[in-house]
Amino acid sequence: MGYKLITGGIAHESNTFSNSPTTLEDFKRQTYNLGNAVLEGNVRRGVIGGFMEVAARKGVELLPTLQARTTPKGPVTRKAFDHMFTELLGRAESYADVDGAILLLHGAMIVEGIDDAEGYMLREMRKILGHNKPIVTVLDLHANMTKEMIDNADCIVGYDTYPHVDQIVRGREAMRIILGILDGELKPATALAKPPIIPPLQGFVTFRSNGGSRLVERAHEMEKNPQVINVSTFACFPFADTPITGLGLLVNTNDDPVLAERLARELAEYAWKIKEEFIVKLVEPKFAINVAMQAPGGTFILADIADTGAGGTAGDGTIILKALLEAGARDVAVAQIADKEAVDECLLNGVGSEVRLKVGGKQDRFHGDPVEVSGIVRHISDGTYIRRGPQNPGGEERMGSTVVLEIGGRHGIDLMLTSHRAHPSDLQHFRSVGIEPTDKRILVLKSAAHYRAAFSPIAIEVFEVDAPGICHPYLDRFKWKRLRRPIWPLDKIDGVPEFKPITVSHQ
Ligand SMILES: [Zn+2]
What we know:
The protein is α/β, with parallel strands linked by helices. It has helices at residues 24-29, 37-40, 46-58, 78-93, 117-129, 147-152, 167-182, 211-223, 257-273, 285-294, 319-327, 340-349, 428-431, 451-455; strands at residues 4-11, 31-34, 61-69, 100-104, 135-139, 155-158, 188-193, 228-234, 248-254, 300-303, 332-338, 354-359, 371-381, 384-386, 396-398, 402-407, 413-418, 442-445, 461-464, 502-506. The two termini are 22 Å apart. The model has no long low-confidence stretch (mean pLDDT 96). Residues 140-142, 164 line the site of zinc ion (ZN).
């Protein structure tokens, strides 16, 4: 009772195939809360909202530091990281009589020169708090887990869902765990297994039956054992060419390192057995468009899963748009192409004007070429909306200045152009710009999987489409230099591997 806990955290998912480093400005444009703003910005939502709910009931005082997060992109610059982390640590050190720290990190942040930024942050936090005060952190399901992380945290809790709809629940769970440690009821023993598997991002979606959902199911069964505190299955963030990238299976037991190690090994063996279920098979854009155009009705989703704004891509891929134009597709809405230049040109011309533009394919050479379109500017806005769907409801999205370009008349293609990279994972993404998604025959969504929570219920069928991008599930299309090898599915591994290393930590 009456505990005081430091909270906050820096979160990013870094794609080493991106040519665009993540800067301080990227964080400041999205989430950059200092001091009390950390708490005020998370009431009733997200992981920190979960911390706050349990803290309020148990009389715990949360001591806010910094919360920063931004959409995935290339690794974070050293300058940006040093600035943010100095701010976070400085505020942490300014508090007196602290009992521990409960943090929200990601697990796949790379800083220039630091592959394992979370391990680094946890180690520095440990230096401040010493060994007798607990540190608990929540990580994203896409964390690339390391020994450094588990050595410097008393307990780590990962999301169980992808799309991530259990953030607030994990926040509450983490707070209960740290209070259990402080009350002397829990003494976590942790085991981490890293089998040589790099599951494609889209092959670990827990909203359908695949390798990911089956692993999570098995983890939940293990959690029924009263000696088990928590089991997390970290899918990894595959688009990071580092030696630490790959599946991570984490078991926390109450004071039983032998059980933790046994369960981690069991989970790794199970993952190896079902690994083929992580493989994703895509369809050609042309095929998906034809099926949708010939159907008597209903809304079809063409998921542009390799160019997801939430995975650090350019967000300006044009291959599906090009196929739609060639097929003369009707009643289509495209979310979206990030192209500030094209948006600015539409802003200059104004609503109702007719424009001819080259859109997309400008950021790098991995997402198709610019495509020439002409149409009428139907909508202009600042691109800000409040989420209403199952994932992070109440959260604010900022797409930057946003335009809807109507190509081929009222029943043609509504093309959303945004000045920032955006990520359609809520129906408000369309509704906020005057498009009713359920009226459309085809919705093109640049999203790897998060779209499923809100959009699957309105779709008659979802097609994962083979278009290029640096979040592509066919991992053999990437040039790997630093990845741990051999690793499945890139390498052929005979027999069953030994699942070393399994790291055990018991503080
Ligand atoms: Zn994630």
